[in-house]
Fold each of these.
Amino acid sequence: MTALMPLSAHVSTLAQLGNRHGSADVMEAPDLNYQILVPMLVLFGGACIAILFEAMVKGAQRSIVQVFTVGLTLLATLGVLVYNFAQGRFGSYGAGLLMADKPAYIMQMALIVFTVGSMFLFVTHTSTSAREAGGRNSQLESEIHALALFSLFGMVMFVASTNLLMLFIALEVLSLPLYVLCSMDRYRPNRSQEASLKYFLLGVVAAALTLYGIVLTFGATGSFDYQAIAQAAENGVEANFFLGFLFIIAGLFFKIGAVPFHSWVPDVYQGAPTPVTAFMAIATKLAAFGALGRLLTLAVPMNDVDTWKLVIAIAAAVSMAYGAIVAIAQRDVKRLIAYSSIGHAGFILAAFVGSTDGVFTVAGLEITAMSAAIVYLLAYGLATIGAFAVVTLVRDENGKEATDFDSWAGIGRKHPAIGAAFVIYFLSFAGIPLTAGFIGKLSAFAVPWLAGQAWLVVVALLLSAVAAFAYFRFLTVMFFDTPSKNARMVAPQGAVTVIIAVTAILTVLMGVLPTWVISLVSDAGSFLVG
């Protein structure tokens, strides 16, 4: 009987079956390139250590230890990324699950830098909470640092994923800590927890949609790998592929905050603690656009390019229109930035209309859709971090953050230095020349123009003007309205002062001398395949 056959007979039978089917059916061990994986391992290890310190270290020292641990982890990760990039350590890990190429390194380094900026706001926020609450240790929200590290770990995987299963795993790793972070505003716990619940429930729906799309795509193509999906789809597949791929893109649109998956953005931006909002606003958007760019470039079959161009173009146009028009009606600065972020998502999506068209030449420099998007995201990130840093300074009579327009009336006149910095950020949002935002819009709009989508550029320019009206309307309140008697601006601590000064200077510097940024990013706009 078969059950009583000796082990050698089983081995012989398996060998004969393997020879009969050929060597192609023999599974090979994946290539484990640990040099590429080191930055992620450092980040994950630091996050785990931070969790241990959260449980082991007691008293006021816990917050200090957490800040030191997180800072050291971020600097070490950034150092490894810079070294790998400089040494040209490019390639794949685990049979193509993750790819280390120039776009991945650039976006991962940008994620680290913007997270460092957000951490400055975290430190100031938690220390201020503790001081104003009488120094109670319970107010030292040191757990936010470890949660932010775990979310960042998911983000660096997200931008490097070339496999749908890895994409979904990274999506969940980056999302789950964010749901908790959004609920940690101890000034307004009810509003914060409501925002967290909305974000979680809608996030679960988006994750389910993404997972269902992955299942449909695998069923239609027989693979999770991006390039294998494109090759299988070129040979002709059933309608399940289009539906599945559309669901995956819908899940990414949720993280980007693009229409029609934007409904969480205003409430979450307003309800979450401002440092968390700053972290989400740029880091999540940067990671999601990185993942979307890689997916569109590598997984879209050539015979379906025009179809997906149309899908992206429509989503871009609708997001621009909705964000710009609804922003005009806002009377809360955080909701204004939230709706403007929806519009910015549309502007960046416009660049992805040319994601399959290769390299374009703009002002003598070669750029791709991905490099144009990175330039825009860098400009957007600088202005966003700086703007939210200023938001943390305006308080009402109870010491809570005041974000309604009435509380900001006359703030620019009373505090000209802070007001000038805020003007720089909003001019950059509007894409005014000599700011980083102008360079970002120029890069993002040049790609669809050169790709033959001139109508989208015209729409983007018109809606940029509409969005600019919303920004200038708020600046008018800041500088020309009668100052509010119930609001004040607290003296910025050192960390906030550094963030405001650095982001304002870099926003202007990038607008005046853009060549160095575009040159750096233009060399990192092509995805590695293999």
Amino acid sequence: MYTIYSIAYLLVLLFLLPFEYFKRPVNLRNIWIKEKLGIYSSELIRNFRRCIWIHAVSVGEVMAAQPLLRKISEQYPSKKILLSTITDTGRKVALENAGENINVVYMPFDLSFLINRVLRKINPELLIIIETELWPNFIKSFKKHNTPVVLLNGRISEKSFNGYKKIKFFIKRILRDIDLFGMQNEVYSSRIMELGAEKDRVIITGNFKFDVLKPDKIPDWAGSIKGRVIVAGSTHDGEEIMITDIFLMLKKEFHDLNLIIAPRHPERFNSVAEMLLEKKLDFLRRSQINKTQLPLSNIILLDTIGELAKVYGIADIVIIGKSFKAHGGQNPLEPALWGKAIICGPYMENFPVIQEFLKKEAALEVPESKLYETLRELLNNPEKAKTIGLKARELSKQNSGSVMKALEIVKQFIDPDNADFAQK
């Protein structure tokens, strides 16, 4: 099965390679192709032998990994960490947050001969996969080199689970090469076991994002906004129009109201801007605001990467994107850290943690048809919004500690004499 997969992967790669290469900025193209081919600098190879290799596919996983990276660096300052990612945005955020002992690279193409060449030179001590990136040859190559593999902050969305079940016979073989699974909750734990993970290798550790530190401060430009603010975070296609229309209705009653829209995918920044222009709306792109300039529009398009977590701090109400158009939802934990009133749509199946928020009245779930009414109610009753936000922040505090559990798992493999975490 691995042979069939590798042949299919190679054929698709050969077809897509020119598009993938030329779609990148000129200054990234050579770096991308070299590292995707497993050609890392001689300095990296020399300094990162026996490193801890951590793989985080994109921005969300990179940010989720930050608390663990900090803990490993604090307890083992001499350990080198190689952080691999796949997307350009993931790489950018990883570089912005990298400490002195961390090097950021693109993960090689999932072809055994490329990965094996890298592993022969670097010989990592441990591979940590953040969330669920099941690259068959990548994982198998590490096991071939006798490098332990652990999956931490593990999650399997309902959509991914249904897809994996169709090829369970192959997924089961991949999971056999993973030594330990640290899953976020019972739902994900059950799914990974149903796909073939052995029960005695699966541990529930919680969600790293409960341990993500609240940003130090709100960006200067956001802090200068006058009036109340709705932040629509990580929105998807169709949601921006809906939210903008509702905002315009609310604006007739609440004259001090502002809206910040943050599309989930950077490649949609321009299309969302075009939509706002077509509606003849007065708006500003965040990229047009400099440090000394005050936002002069009531609508701001957040067309930057890695800033949303800080911008939540200025919000009075947060709308969770990707939850109104059957896309699976987005992470509610970042606004919860700020103690903000959270509203989501009915499609949050990729983030089952929302059920705990709803049960504790730390968030509101409403259909699209009730969003205007709910926003209007919270704007008219700021004490209710404040209470929801405080409950969200308290829930975040109660669920923290997952990173320390994950660190104990890491210790089992790199420092077993000092590991306190008992596997059950």
Amino acid sequence: MEQKEPLLSFEFADSNDKINPLTFQNPLRVITAHKIEDVLPSFQLVQEAVEIGYYAAGFLSYESAPAFDPAFRVKSGSSMPLLWFGIFSEPKHEYLNSTGDFTTSEWKPSITMDTYDQAINYIKQCIESGDTYQTNYTIRLHSKFNGDGLAFYNRLKKAQSSHYCAYIHTGEQSILSASPELFFHFHNGKITTRPMKGTVKRGASHEEDTANANWLYHSEKDRAENVMIVDLLRNDLGMIAESGTVTVDKLFEIEQYPTVHQMTSTISAQVSETASLVDIFKALFPCGSITGAPKISTMNIIAELENEPREVYCGAIGYITPNKEALFNVPIRTVLIDHRSGDAVYGVGGGITWDSTSIGEYHEILAKAKVLEESPVEFDLLESLLLDNGQYFLLEEHLKRMGNSAGYFGVNYDAKKIKKNLNDFSYENNSGLVKVRLLLARNGEVTIEGQPITQQGAAVEVVLAGEAVDKSNPFLYHKTTNREVYTKFQKQMPSEAFDVLLWNQDGELTEFTNGNVVLEINGKLWTPPLSSGLLAGTYRDRLIKTGEIYEKTLTLADLKMATKIFFINSVRKWREVHLL
């Protein structure tokens, strides 16, 4: 049963990037505005409530913009409040959890690819004629929702790992915002904004991911896009700032999220003592990162091209405290659910410049919408090490690989702590051969397990996988306890088989489920490259560096040419195998 009373939860980062959970319930009053002429008087009531010691929490829709500047043009037809704020005595410092379930139907775009292409071409014409330098063009994805909105929010939040998440349930509607973007933070007379412009999808491997992030950092298109918005926000802040205090604190920072890398810049200023919260919104709203520049003429283009109102998407969600601190996000990565109809809407878009291409921007949209389908998987990082009479084999290589994966997944990694735990374990297990299982949890907790290694016999049989693996799956490139892709094949292999040889959608050999593969062809030893979709085995890397084996793409046909097949890993080292 969906809750009827308003319930609001914020998980916003403070100035030190520490998440401060606040939950608001049982409002003393709810202030809403459905007409443009009612927005400023309603906002004034919100400000008055804060001035006498209450908290205010809620949102403004994008379509409330003309209240702050009549020159702003927006789409008509929104049924959502333009302004909605609850007034509260005080919040609870707690997270909201849910044990409920939910379902969504397929998310379908509101426009066709042809219409999208026409819109991009029209924006380029407007750029050519000087009406805009950059336009943030967005579309909607629609779905049918059934179940617990809070449960969906918690999944989105985990999938996105954002710093400005919010759940707002008004009774009839729920807003699930997993936004990574700060609109502004106002505290003790200082205001900070952090516009987000520039996106690239995450790579599957550590190497590909690092390359993608570096590409974004050096991308002339994305830098131009970002600096346009920085200039716009500097100008906006200048309307409320004390003279000479507007500062660009950070430029072109790359932030990492589960599905994308984003480029951000940080601008701050000291606000004039006479400026009110309404004055701040008059200067800044809507955020330039989700309009484009120049703001007025670009918003005209948006209103003409977009076929639906944005509503809370691209508006502002946040709270104001009695000590005049205000913290608002830009509601991107945000789902709006109407519980009366079961309709769910997700807005997504990007900044269009002269260098933009329809296909490139559409791929960026798909990357940003991926969060809707992501089901977060709980896992630990894993390394299997050989302990030989108290000495670890390839220890530094294992720790480097774990450190790279920790950076990729955002896992707390303390090399000194891990080494100490390993040394303590080796001190107590200093004789014989032991397979050591090193586990690292997301919070940095270390677990070490060990088991004696039995002598291996002669060559054993392996089988070829009955279907391909998807080489874009990140878990092929990182060793974790999420071994679903491997256990599926292990369950299917016959009892007499030692392991399963995997191959990808391009017909390229990749690896075994527990080790790397080496083929002897014409007297030379070959192993597949990482780009085929496999784990960078530490023993494999050592053999490549010493020139004992070589990398090249191997296909299923190469199996017939191989005179020998080897299974290798850092625990068992070499083992010859035969294909059943």
